[in-house]
Amino acid sequence: MINELNVFDENINPVFEEIRDLINSSRNRVYSAVNTEMLNLYWNIGKIIMEIQQGDERATYGDAVLEKLSEKLTNEFGKGFSARNLRTMRKFYIIYPIWKTVSAKLSWSHYLELIKIEEKPKRNFYLKETINSRWSVRELQRDLCLLAVKLE
User: Fold this and answer.
1) How many domains does one find in the chain?
2) Taking the model in full, what pTM does it have?
3) How far, in Å, are 34, 88, 134 from residue 30 at the CA level?
């Protein structure tokens, strides 16, 4: 009986591994597609906000628009559309005004860290380094904290 189970495992293991690889591959493609759509959505929201404000970020008018927009979006779609988040989406668009410069290899969380960097050359360096080194968000945050400590 034990011999039969071992033979069965030997036959089923390659099939299991092939199916496991298919599942993992499919999950990765789904994650990538969802991530790309999310980045595209937030970039386009930022673009629309800038178009409404005609590139003008006047504090009182801009804040009133974002507050009202936030209220309506939150009522319709739930969390994620606070005025603060809408300002972040606007900043995302301001920093990356050309969609093709946004890399789907990075997540929204990566971009949240990158847009905090004011100096464009430094931000571009970290963008490229994060992509090339495949840094997680935590690794990017760690490196940015180390940089901040060195600058102090």
Assistant:
1) 1
2) 0.81
3) 6, 25, 19
